[in-house]
Amino acid sequence: MSDPFFDTNILVDWLKNRPQAIAELSRYNRHRISRIVWTELMAGEAVETRSHIAQLLSPFQMVELDERIAAAAADIRYRSEMRLLDAYILATAQVNGAILITRNTKDFPANMPGIRIPYTL
Question: What pLDDT is attached to residue 71?
């Protein structure tokens, strides 16, 4: 398994300096996110602060959506009825041979293969 992908909630916690998120991110040399995660983070910020958040995220490797990810997301959505954006986030990790690190147990059950729930709040 290669370095993981991080879900939006882990990065929100990191941006809020939550120790659990900082510790989780420190476990890995490379940090990857889906373009969907980036978009969700930007959508939660005022226009005036988006450039600052984008700068904080610049060390993260952002993976763009492509046909393979879209097809995998469609399969996940069809099989599980997962919300489409969540299916894209999970598909991005799966297509890249990685796990998804999240604390969102509502949309990503802890027993789902390829999911890591490192902490809860």
Answer: 99
CA 23, 29, 35, 36 torsion-angle sign? negative
Q: Which residues contact 55 (CB under 8 A, 6 or more apart)?
A: none
What would you report as the CA-atom Rg of the chain, rounded to the nearest whole angstrom?
14
- The whole-model pTM stands at 0.94
CATH superfamily, region 5-116: 5'-nuclease (3.40.50.1010)
CA-to-CA dists, residue 8 to 11, 14, 51, 67, 113, angstroms: 5, 10, 17, 22, 19
Domain ranges of the chain: 5-116
Q: Tell me the C-alpha distance between 71 and 8, whole Å.
A: 22
* Rounded-to-integer distance, Cα 49 and Cα 87, Å: 28
Buried b (16+ CB within 10 A) or exposed e, 54-85: eeebeebeebeeeeebeebbeebbeeeebeeb
Query: Which residues of the chain fall short of a pLDDT of 70?
Result: 1
